[in-house]
């Protein structure tokens, strides 16, 4: 069974095929919109977007000055402090991208277009993540889950 997601309508919220664990990889391929100011990818613990569920990783490229890639989390309806340092800004409008999120024992390791970009330490339990959400001016071609076991989510 193919648990990958292809060409989702944005905004998108969908369940993960099974709980994430160290060694898993989430591969997101897409194209930034031509008039993008920002877009976001969230790993969260439910399917709500209005009364938001807790979000373990909120990754948001922001194109307004100064361009930056914001990383944060949401717990009990409260956003945590933003991290936005990075060696470069890896996105451009109208350009394809590939984001890799590697799940490690204590952090997410994030690469963009084949280059390591940053890490984000877990603030919430990894086991609480059940959904992925995408929003903003972006087209997603695919979301692929790699390194998962063959048994379906219980």
TrEMBL record:
InterPro entries hit by this protein: ConA-like_dom_sf, Galectin-like, Galectin_CRD
Molecular-function GO terms, alphabetical: carbohydrate binding; galactoside binding
Keywords: Lectin, Repeat
Statement: the UniProt record of this protein carries the keyword Repeat: yes
Residues in coiled coil: none
The Galectin domain, residue ranges: 12-146
Annotated CDD domains: GLECT
PANTHER family reported for this sequence: 32 KDA BETA-GALACTOSIDE-BINDING LECTIN LEC-3, GALECTIN
Protein's recorded name: Galectin
Gene transcribed to yield this protein: LGALS8
